Amino acid sequence: MNLEEYFETKNSQDFPSEKDYVAIYRTFKQFMNSEIHNEVKAITTRLDNTVYLNDHSANHVKMVMVKVSSILKDCSYLTPYECFILLVAIQIHDAGHIFNGRDGHEKSGRYLLENLNVDTIERKIIGDIAKAHSGKNDPIGNLPYKTSISGHDVRIRELAALLRFGDELADENSRASSYLLKKDLIPEDSKLYHAFSESLYNFNPDKESHCIQMGFSLTKNQVQNRYKKGESSIYLLDEIYTRTFKTFQECLYYNRFVSYEYQFHSIIISIEFIDEGFEPFFDTISYRIEEKGYPTLSINNVFEYCGAQLERSNNKLTGDYVHQCVNSSL
Protein backbone atom coordinates (compact mmCIF):
# COMPACT_ATOMS: atom_id res chain seq x y z
CA MET A 1 0.00 0.00 0.00
CA ASN A 2 1.55 3.30 -1.06
CA LEU A 3 1.34 6.60 0.80
CA GLU A 4 -1.75 7.87 -0.97
CA GLU A 5 -3.61 4.56 -0.64
CA TYR A 6 -2.76 4.38 3.06
CA PHE A 7 -3.96 7.95 3.62
CA GLU A 8 -7.30 7.33 1.88
CA THR A 9 -8.17 4.53 4.33
CA LYS A 10 -8.34 7.02 7.20
CA ASN A 11 -11.45 8.50 8.81
CA SER A 12 -12.17 12.06 9.93
CA GLN A 13 -11.52 11.21 13.59
CA ASP A 14 -7.83 10.73 12.68
CA PHE A 15 -7.46 14.43 11.88
CA PRO A 16 -7.63 17.82 13.64
CA SER A 17 -11.17 18.89 14.53
CA GLU A 18 -12.35 15.66 12.89
CA LYS A 19 -12.37 17.39 9.49
CA ASP A 20 -12.61 15.15 6.43
CA TYR A 21 -9.09 15.71 5.15
CA VAL A 22 -9.39 12.75 2.79
CA ALA A 23 -12.23 14.50 0.94
CA ILE A 24 -10.29 17.78 1.02
CA TYR A 25 -7.27 16.07 -0.54
CA ARG A 26 -9.34 14.34 -3.23
CA THR A 27 -10.91 17.65 -4.24
CA PHE A 28 -7.52 19.35 -4.41
CA LYS A 29 -5.97 16.46 -6.33
CA GLN A 30 -8.79 16.61 -8.88
CA PHE A 31 -8.16 20.34 -9.30
CA MET A 32 -4.42 19.75 -9.80
CA ASN A 33 -4.99 16.95 -12.31
CA SER A 34 -7.64 18.76 -14.33
CA GLU A 35 -6.32 22.32 -14.22
CA ILE A 36 -2.64 22.41 -13.34
CA HIS A 37 -0.42 19.39 -14.05
CA ASN A 38 -1.02 19.36 -17.82
CA GLU A 39 -0.24 23.07 -17.93
CA VAL A 40 2.97 22.46 -15.99
CA LYS A 41 4.02 19.83 -18.52
CA ALA A 42 3.25 22.16 -21.43
CA ILE A 43 5.21 25.03 -19.90
CA THR A 44 8.26 23.02 -18.79
CA THR A 45 8.66 21.53 -22.26
CA ARG A 46 8.59 24.98 -23.86
CA LEU A 47 10.20 27.35 -21.40
CA ASP A 48 12.08 28.88 -24.34
CA ASN A 49 13.72 27.71 -27.57
CA THR A 50 16.68 26.21 -25.71
CA VAL A 51 15.01 24.47 -22.74
CA TYR A 52 12.89 21.32 -22.83
CA LEU A 53 12.73 19.93 -19.31
CA ASN A 54 12.09 16.27 -18.56
CA ASP A 55 8.68 15.20 -17.30
CA HIS A 56 7.07 17.41 -14.62
CA SER A 57 3.50 16.17 -15.15
CA ALA A 58 1.09 14.23 -12.93
CA ASN A 59 3.17 11.15 -13.76
CA HIS A 60 6.15 12.71 -12.01
CA VAL A 61 3.96 13.50 -8.98
CA LYS A 62 2.90 9.84 -8.86
CA MET A 63 6.51 8.71 -9.13
CA VAL A 64 7.57 10.93 -6.20
CA MET A 65 4.79 9.33 -4.13
CA VAL A 66 6.02 5.87 -5.15
CA LYS A 67 9.58 6.72 -4.12
CA VAL A 68 8.53 8.18 -0.76
CA SER A 69 6.45 5.05 -0.16
CA SER A 70 9.50 2.91 -0.98
CA ILE A 71 11.62 4.86 1.48
CA LEU A 72 9.08 4.40 4.26
CA LYS A 73 7.98 0.83 3.43
CA ASP A 74 5.47 1.12 6.26
CA CYS A 75 3.54 4.36 5.72
CA SER A 76 2.08 4.17 9.22
CA TYR A 77 5.35 5.74 10.40
CA LEU A 78 3.60 9.00 9.45
CA THR A 79 0.40 10.09 11.13
CA PRO A 80 -2.62 10.44 8.83
CA TYR A 81 -2.39 14.22 9.21
CA GLU A 82 1.31 14.19 8.25
CA CYS A 83 0.36 12.10 5.21
CA PHE A 84 -2.08 14.79 4.17
CA ILE A 85 0.49 17.57 4.57
CA LEU A 86 3.12 15.60 2.62
CA LEU A 87 0.77 14.51 -0.18
CA VAL A 88 -0.38 18.07 -0.86
CA ALA A 89 3.24 19.29 -0.79
CA ILE A 90 4.12 16.64 -3.38
CA GLN A 91 1.21 17.77 -5.54
CA ILE A 92 2.45 21.37 -5.68
CA HIS A 93 6.24 20.98 -5.46
CA ASP A 94 6.86 21.57 -9.20
CA ALA A 95 3.58 23.29 -10.06
CA GLY A 96 5.02 26.77 -9.56
CA HIS A 97 6.44 26.55 -13.09
CA ILE A 98 3.10 27.82 -14.38
CA PHE A 99 3.65 31.25 -12.80
CA ASN A 100 7.17 32.27 -13.77
CA GLY A 101 8.93 29.28 -15.31
CA ARG A 102 11.94 27.66 -13.65
CA ASP A 103 13.03 30.63 -11.55
CA GLY A 104 11.48 30.45 -8.09
CA HIS A 105 9.14 27.60 -9.02
CA GLU A 106 9.74 25.92 -5.66
CA LYS A 107 8.21 28.93 -3.85
CA SER A 108 5.39 29.96 -6.17
CA GLY A 109 3.58 26.61 -6.03
CA ARG A 110 2.13 27.82 -2.72
CA TYR A 111 -0.19 30.19 -4.64
CA LEU A 112 -2.21 27.16 -5.71
CA LEU A 113 -3.07 26.43 -2.09
CA GLU A 114 -5.81 29.04 -2.20
CA ASN A 115 -7.78 26.17 -3.76
CA LEU A 116 -7.18 23.98 -0.70
CA ASN A 117 -9.90 24.14 1.96
CA VAL A 118 -7.67 24.34 5.04
CA ASP A 119 -6.49 27.03 7.46
CA THR A 120 -3.82 29.59 6.61
CA ILE A 121 -1.24 28.03 8.96
CA GLU A 122 -1.68 24.67 7.24
CA ARG A 123 -1.14 26.26 3.83
CA LYS A 124 2.03 27.91 5.13
CA ILE A 125 3.42 24.60 6.45
CA ILE A 126 2.66 22.84 3.16
CA GLY A 127 4.23 25.66 1.15
CA ASP A 128 7.35 25.65 3.33
CA ILE A 129 7.78 21.88 2.90
CA ALA A 130 7.26 22.09 -0.87
CA LYS A 131 9.75 24.90 -1.42
CA ALA A 132 12.51 23.00 0.44
CA HIS A 133 12.71 20.45 -2.39
CA SER A 134 15.06 22.78 -4.26
CA GLY A 135 18.13 24.84 -3.45
CA LYS A 136 21.40 24.36 -1.59
CA ASN A 137 21.20 27.08 1.05
CA ASP A 138 20.12 24.54 3.70
CA PRO A 139 16.40 24.91 2.87
CA ILE A 140 15.34 22.09 5.21
CA GLY A 141 17.58 23.14 8.08
CA ASN A 142 16.01 26.60 7.96
CA LEU A 143 12.57 25.14 8.69
CA PRO A 144 11.16 24.57 12.18
CA TYR A 145 11.78 21.07 13.51
CA LYS A 146 8.08 20.44 14.07
CA THR A 147 4.83 22.11 15.02
CA SER A 148 1.49 21.07 16.48
CA ILE A 149 -2.02 21.88 15.19
CA SER A 150 -5.00 21.01 17.38
CA GLY A 151 -2.85 18.49 19.23
CA HIS A 152 -1.56 16.83 16.03
CA ASP A 153 2.24 17.00 15.62
CA VAL A 154 3.75 17.68 12.21
CA ARG A 155 7.45 16.83 11.77
CA ILE A 156 8.14 19.60 9.28
CA ARG A 157 11.82 18.93 8.57
CA GLU A 158 11.32 15.20 8.22
CA LEU A 159 8.44 15.62 5.78
CA ALA A 160 10.50 18.10 3.75
CA ALA A 161 13.41 15.63 3.67
CA LEU A 162 11.14 12.83 2.45
CA LEU A 163 9.76 15.03 -0.33
CA ARG A 164 13.17 16.28 -1.42
CA PHE A 165 14.79 12.83 -1.47
CA GLY A 166 11.73 11.22 -3.07
CA ASP A 167 12.00 13.85 -5.81
CA GLU A 168 15.68 13.01 -6.25
CA LEU A 169 14.86 9.31 -6.66
CA ALA A 170 12.09 10.02 -9.19
CA ASP A 171 14.44 10.67 -12.10
CA GLU A 172 14.11 7.40 -14.03
CA ASN A 173 13.72 6.71 -17.75
CA SER A 174 9.98 7.36 -17.64
CA ARG A 175 10.82 11.09 -17.33
CA ALA A 176 12.70 11.19 -20.62
CA SER A 177 11.13 12.13 -23.94
CA SER A 178 12.78 9.18 -25.68
CA TYR A 179 10.98 9.51 -29.01
CA LEU A 180 11.82 13.20 -29.38
CA LEU A 181 15.40 12.45 -28.33
CA LYS A 182 15.66 9.73 -30.98
CA LYS A 183 14.23 12.06 -33.66
CA ASP A 184 16.61 14.86 -32.62
CA LEU A 185 13.73 17.18 -31.70
CA ILE A 186 15.01 18.25 -28.28
CA PRO A 187 17.11 21.45 -28.00
CA GLU A 188 20.83 20.87 -27.61
CA ASP A 189 20.85 22.45 -24.13
CA SER A 190 18.35 19.85 -22.85
CA LYS A 191 19.46 16.64 -24.56
CA LEU A 192 21.85 15.66 -21.77
CA TYR A 193 19.12 15.64 -19.12
CA HIS A 194 16.81 13.47 -21.21
CA ALA A 195 19.69 11.14 -22.13
CA PHE A 196 20.57 10.76 -18.46
CA SER A 197 16.98 9.92 -17.48
CA GLU A 198 16.59 7.59 -20.45
CA SER A 199 19.66 5.57 -19.44
CA LEU A 200 18.58 5.25 -15.76
CA TYR A 201 16.43 2.12 -15.54
CA ASN A 202 16.67 1.41 -11.79
CA PHE A 203 16.73 3.98 -8.98
CA ASN A 204 15.43 2.44 -5.80
CA PRO A 205 16.03 2.57 -2.05
CA ASP A 206 16.71 -0.64 -0.12
CA LYS A 207 15.66 0.11 3.43
CA GLU A 208 17.07 -3.14 4.87
CA SER A 209 20.63 -2.49 3.62
CA HIS A 210 20.33 1.33 3.93
CA CYS A 211 21.50 1.52 0.31
CA ILE A 212 20.29 3.19 -2.88
CA GLN A 213 20.52 1.12 -6.07
CA MET A 214 21.14 2.89 -9.38
CA GLY A 215 21.24 0.98 -12.67
CA PHE A 216 22.15 2.49 -16.05
CA SER A 217 22.15 1.05 -19.55
CA LEU A 218 24.06 2.89 -22.30
CA THR A 219 23.94 2.34 -26.05
CA LYS A 220 26.90 2.82 -28.42
CA ASN A 221 25.31 6.05 -29.61
CA GLN A 222 25.07 7.36 -26.03
CA VAL A 223 28.70 6.44 -25.40
CA GLN A 224 30.00 8.09 -28.55
CA ASN A 225 27.96 11.31 -28.40
CA ARG A 226 29.01 14.42 -26.58
CA TYR A 227 26.16 16.44 -25.06
CA LYS A 228 26.08 20.16 -24.54
CA LYS A 229 26.41 21.27 -20.93
CA GLY A 230 26.67 24.98 -20.36
CA GLU A 231 29.39 26.40 -22.58
CA SER A 232 31.13 23.06 -23.11
CA SER A 233 30.21 19.45 -23.87
CA ILE A 234 30.41 16.20 -21.94
CA TYR A 235 30.09 12.46 -22.43
CA LEU A 236 27.02 10.89 -20.84
CA LEU A 237 29.21 8.54 -18.81
CA ASP A 238 30.96 11.50 -17.19
CA GLU A 239 27.59 13.09 -16.45
CA ILE A 240 26.53 9.86 -14.74
CA TYR A 241 29.59 10.06 -12.49
CA THR A 242 28.70 13.67 -11.61
CA ARG A 243 25.02 12.97 -11.01
CA THR A 244 25.55 9.84 -8.89
CA PHE A 245 27.86 11.82 -6.64
CA LYS A 246 25.18 14.53 -6.40
CA THR A 247 22.72 11.82 -5.34
CA PHE A 248 25.13 10.83 -2.57
CA GLN A 249 25.30 14.45 -1.41
CA GLU A 250 21.49 14.60 -1.38
CA CYS A 251 21.50 11.36 0.60
CA LEU A 252 23.78 12.82 3.27
CA TYR A 253 21.61 15.92 3.47
CA TYR A 254 18.44 13.85 3.77
CA ASN A 255 20.01 11.71 6.53
CA ARG A 256 20.43 14.79 8.70
CA PHE A 257 16.69 15.09 9.22
CA VAL A 258 15.40 11.52 9.56
CA SER A 259 15.80 8.74 12.10
CA TYR A 260 18.41 6.04 11.52
CA GLU A 261 15.85 3.48 10.36
CA TYR A 262 15.11 5.63 7.30
CA GLN A 263 18.65 6.71 6.50
CA PHE A 264 20.73 5.56 3.51
CA HIS A 265 24.50 5.33 3.75
CA SER A 266 25.70 4.22 0.34
CA ILE A 267 24.88 4.37 -3.35
CA ILE A 268 25.59 1.26 -5.45
CA ILE A 269 25.84 2.00 -9.17
CA SER A 270 25.91 -0.42 -12.11
CA ILE A 271 26.45 0.84 -15.68
CA GLU A 272 25.84 -1.66 -18.48
CA PHE A 273 26.74 -1.18 -22.14
CA ILE A 274 24.25 -2.87 -24.45
CA ASP A 275 24.12 -2.51 -28.25
CA GLU A 276 21.04 -2.62 -30.47
CA GLY A 277 21.34 -6.40 -30.73
CA PHE A 278 21.12 -6.62 -26.93
CA GLU A 279 24.76 -7.68 -26.69
CA PRO A 280 27.28 -6.09 -24.30
CA PHE A 281 29.96 -4.06 -26.08
CA PHE A 282 31.91 -2.97 -22.98
CA ASP A 283 32.41 -4.51 -19.56
CA THR A 284 29.95 -3.39 -16.89
CA ILE A 285 31.20 -0.58 -14.64
CA SER A 286 30.23 -0.96 -10.99
CA TYR A 287 31.10 1.30 -8.08
CA ARG A 288 29.90 2.24 -4.62
CA ILE A 289 29.81 5.71 -3.07
CA GLU A 290 29.84 5.88 0.72
CA GLU A 291 31.36 7.83 3.56
CA LYS A 292 34.82 6.71 4.56
CA GLY A 293 37.83 7.99 6.40
CA TYR A 294 37.90 10.76 8.96
CA PRO A 295 35.21 13.42 8.31
CA THR A 296 36.38 16.75 6.97
CA LEU A 297 34.71 20.15 6.83
CA SER A 298 35.14 22.73 4.08
CA ILE A 299 35.26 25.34 6.89
CA ASN A 300 38.00 24.65 9.42
CA ASN A 301 37.37 27.64 11.68
CA VAL A 302 34.69 27.25 14.37
CA PHE A 303 34.02 31.00 14.29
CA GLU A 304 33.15 30.89 10.58
CA TYR A 305 31.07 27.77 11.07
CA CYS A 306 29.01 29.03 14.01
CA GLY A 307 28.87 32.70 13.04
CA ALA A 308 26.78 34.88 15.34
CA GLN A 309 26.58 32.16 17.99
CA LEU A 310 30.19 32.96 18.90
CA GLU A 311 29.92 36.73 18.61
CA ARG A 312 28.97 39.49 21.00
CA SER A 313 28.71 43.14 20.00
CA ASN A 314 30.24 42.15 16.62
CA ASN A 315 33.31 40.72 18.37
CA LYS A 316 34.35 37.08 18.17
CA LEU A 317 34.30 35.44 21.60
CA THR A 318 37.99 34.52 21.52
CA GLY A 319 40.00 33.85 24.63
CA ASP A 320 41.68 37.23 24.22
CA TYR A 321 38.34 39.07 23.91
CA VAL A 322 36.82 37.37 26.97
CA HIS A 323 40.09 38.02 28.89
CA GLN A 324 39.87 41.72 28.08
CA CYS A 325 36.19 41.90 29.02
CA VAL A 326 36.82 40.27 32.38
CA ASN A 327 39.83 42.49 33.14
CA SER A 328 37.90 45.65 32.25
CA SER A 329 35.14 44.73 34.73
CA LEU A 330 37.55 44.31 37.67
UniProtKB/TrEMBL annotation:
InterPro entries: HD-CE (IPR056471). Gene3D superfamilies: Hypothetical protein af1432 (1.10.3210.10). SUPFAM superfamilies: HD-domain/PDEase-like. It comes from the Bacteria. Residues 53-226 form the HD-CE domain. This is HD-CE domain-containing protein. It comes from Phocaeicola massiliensis B84634 = Timone 84634 = DSM 17679 = JCM 13223.
